[in-house]
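[scheduler] slot 2 assigned
[scheduler] job type: sequence-to-structure, two independent chains
[scheduler] chain ordering preserved from manifest
[runner] begin chain α
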Amino acid sequence: MEDQQVESNMSLPSWPPQTTPEHTEHLTHQLLAYCLAHSLLLLPPGANPASAIHAPVSLFPTPFPRQLYAHALELGPAFNELYAKITLDVKWLDGVMEKVAGVDEFQGELWKLWREVRDDAVQPLHLLLSRSDYLLHTASAAPLSLRQVEYNTMSSSFGALSTQTHGLHAHLLRDPSYAALHPQLRPENLPENETLRGLVDGLAAGHAAYEESRNENEERERVVLFVVQDAERNVFDQRLLEYDLLRRHNIRTIRLTHTELSTRASLSPSRALILTHPTSPHTPPVEVSIVYFRSGYTPEDYPTPSLWRTRSLLERSSAIKCPTLALQLAGAKKVQQVLAAPGVVERFLGPGSKSEAVRSVFAGLWPLDDSPEGREAQALARDPAQAVKYVLKPQREGGGNNIYREAIPPFFEKLSKDQREAYILMELIEPPAPLANALVKGGEGVARTGEVVSELGVYGTALFGVEKGIVRNEVAGHLLRTKGRESDEGGVAVGFSVIDELLLVDV
């Protein structure tokens, strides 16, 4: 496994293809019809379940170097292995979280709960549905390469909608008037996108592992539990996973919020997680094989102590968690920063080409504590001339939490010493020369062209435990999110970017 680079003097093609306003409108109408017919949708603001809007998507796939896409896929199993081994190294993870707990209350509560329940756990397996996010990076006289933005161990969304977006662009390519707009617009330049299938197969593998471990005489139906947020707008991305689980694997799913679980979930004497039906008392209870969290990663998901107790109940059950508390904590930004220190990746993956390849995609990362590296980072954060090269990242998941460039010094000065230690300083990744595309915002139905930056996410699935080791480790697919260059955040659900597809090019 080697670091992949391409020469920076080779440019990506001029983009998007030139067309007339009338033709753009014609293609946009085709796009909208496809989205509405293929569940490429979000609920509108307010999450009214009786209506839907098309998801934010691109009119054209975005050019991306073929070699670097292949390299990102090659790195997938290595990153899954790295984070699986971090999750299983209790002493090391405790050492990292101890530093975080004093400055980030939410992470501290997660760590406290993990310490309370881990010796009482009865399920030895962890299920990971991951996404490793990358940007193209270039610097003066340096080759074009990949830089990792973050590695997500929880609620890695938009996989199903990514598959649908691939279908959208493949459909548009069947229109000769679309394909004729640029010689690169050819079906063979769209990479295969079976992310929906890959993620569902990961859930099904976890379900199968659970079935093997249970008493065959127990006749309760085993289901996959989706733990979701109230007023979830990204419901169709989740529903497509549910429907495919049922269609291809005959595994039924149940969707519940933390609040609903507090009244419907209980543990059997053998610690099976049992769910009752809310409106039909004559329907037999079901047993949960997999707890798949699509919520639980922000403080807002635990507004009352009772919901923390619900998370504890889930963690102590025999169901396989996706993720466990330990695996969720392994995805903290502080872990990402500590991994950048010399010798840490090698602790888990050993010396050699695998560790070198993982390190090759790291951006510069620094703590903001009293260590020599931390004091250096604090000086950079205070200096307006230097801060424009960096981003401040908290431990928190979800869009809208990062502080960028010139906004760093005034924000940093308002933080107390303890609050500063809740952040890491990360070198800004520098995308190549401006690329443009036509973006259609959710519910607008109008294509708007502007300069963009695209972020590649590579999904993976892994099933692992202390005794069995890593029993499954697969690449599950990809996602391309494209945002206006003026926008620093990239969360589709909060309106900053669109779901896109790769157009692989040789550069």
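[runner] end chain α
[runner] begin chain β
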Amino acid sequence: MEIMVASGDIVTYKNSDLVEDWIVVLPRRRKCTRKYPRLPGPKQDEKPWFSTELLFDRPRYSLVVQKVHLFLKKLENSKFFRLFMSQIQNNTIWDHFSKARGSNLKMQMVIYGIGSIESLDASRLQLSLAILMKRKLD
């Protein structure tokens, strides 16, 4: 019995009774694969990295909070926000919010990727809009 395998070789078996219903497949010749060098692990004397953002800086924190409060006041008194909230409180849109909220009395909100509220006005504006929406919709 002759069997052709993936590598193109022909394998012949003298006793065909044993392999009548079986197909023998031999592994292909392996292609040369690149072996990437291992990256060295941290040295024993090195300290692990930690974020400096975890350290609490009260003056910096109060400045950010002050900036966010300023944006909250500006946005709340703006024509844009009044028009936006009137459109959201429209019956059809309000029904969608009610369905999304389900049995929860308060709306849950997740905000991704608004950026640095410390250094970007656009990020503070987005956060302020989310805070005001949450206040008005709950």
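[runner] end chain β
[qc] chain β: The CA atoms of residues 91 and 97 lie 10 Å apart.
[scheduler] slot 2 released
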